[in-house]
Specification:
Layout (H helix, E strand, L loop, with lengths): L1 E2 L23 E3 L7 E2 L16 H13 L1 H5 L2 E3 L4 E8 L2 E8 L2 E3 L17 H12 L14 H7 L13 H15 L16
Antiparallel strand pairs: 1-3, 2-7, 4-5, 5-6
Length: 199
């Protein structure tokens, strides 16, 4: 467990407005928790985003957190003023997005999108909120719906090593096994997979 790095006030980017939510009963609220805790590890269903359709984003964060949590920690900075700066990459240039620590919640106090993790960690929800601004500048959670993991790896400045396509799960499994045997990785690397429904 570790805290986010502290930023110097003179270098802070402009504070972004809270992204528009997808349901009228969702409101922004500052959770009565300790400051954002970065218990970075694979989180699976724990962080399932229920309404924004951004499983591609969450699965990529989970994969990175499992094998290289430092890559996540370096991208979130505690501004020590109730805001956080999340660093993304666009066209090879670092793009900082500053958001408040208030998060979208249901009337019962539960987070509306990415949920709490180990030790009530909120780093995924903070990154998701910043991504709602960064991705298309639409400033809406709806703008997160649908995407590919390669986009997120790129937006976090991490090179996506391989992309495969297969007709079915069995063929996909064979591709992955062969790729792993061929590369014999010396260290763990984040990996994700997805499926596209036939129309």
């Amino acid at each position: 467990m570790s805290a986010a790095p502290i930023a110097h006030a003179a270098k802070l980017p402009a504070l972004q407005v809270n992204p528009q939510v997808t349901d009228g009963s969702i409101t922004y609220y500052r959770l009565l928790l300790s400051p954002v805790v970065f218990q970075c590890r694979s989180f699976g269903q724990r962080y399932q985003s229920r309404r924004s359709g951004d499983c591609y984003f969450l699965s990529t964060l989970s994969a990175i957190a499992k094998v290289d949590p430092a890559a996540i920690r370096k991208d979130i900075i505690n501004n020590n003023d109730g805001t956080y700066t999340v660093n993304f990459v666009k066209g090879g240039t670092k793009t900082p997005i500053r958001v408040s620590a208030t998060l979208p919640t249901w009337p019962d106090g539960q987070l509306a999108y990415a949920g709490l993790g180990a030790d009530n960690s909120t780093w995924v929800a903070v990154m998701e909120k910043a991504f709602a601004e960064f991705r298309t500048h639409a400033k809406t959670y709806a703008s997160l719906s649908g995407g590919w993991m390669s986009e997120v790896f790129s937006d976090l400045g991490i090179k996506s090593q391989s992309t495969f396509s297969a007709a079915n799960v069995k063929a996909f499994d064979k591709i992955i096994v062969n790729d792993l045997k061929a590369k014999q990785p010396r260290r763990s690397r984040p990996a994700t997979s997805s499926a596209m429904a036939r129309r």
